[in-house]
TrEMBL record:
InterPro entries: DNA/RNA_pol_sf, RT_dom. GO terms for biological process: DNA biosynthetic process. It comes from the Eukaryota. This is Reverse transcriptase domain-containing protein. PANTHER family: REVERSE TRANSCRIPTASES. Coiled coil: none annotated. Residues 76-159 form the Reverse transcriptase domain. The lineage of its organism: Eukaryota, Metazoa, Ecdysozoa, Arthropoda, Chelicerata. It holds the Pfam family RVT_1.
Amino acid sequence: MVLEDIEMVTNALICGKAPGFDRIDFRMWRAVFIHDREFILDLINICFKFNYFPEHLRNTRVFFLLKDGKYPGLCISYWPVCLVPTSGKITERLFLLQLNKWLDRNNIIHHNQYGFREGKSCDLAIHDLIETIKIRMASEHLALVSLDIKSAFDTMYWPVLF
């Protein structure tokens, strides 16, 4: 981990978001980072080096918010909200940053993967799809199959993937 990574993550933090049950918000962490960058860098690198993620950073408080206009008797009528300690959120984002760098470096994710990718969006996926259709309509047969599976993530049979 390098200072630039931590600086990028701390600069991207949104102040005013709810802190975890530790009640430490992002402004405090940003102030600590500005005051002593090397301390934070050393702390994070030690956690990564020894594969250590303190247990108190893994504790969350979960509660459920009823969606507008939904029947309260159904589980799908609620949004789950997890309050995670802000230091845990920072560490998770740094881990994600390192994981994404490794995935990109090793060409693991297909270039047509748009979801959950930096610099990729639904708009870009639609644009690329339209461009592909325009190019191929003139010279080849073309078919498009599109599926929208309701609650796909919630109903996925996970052993198929792993």
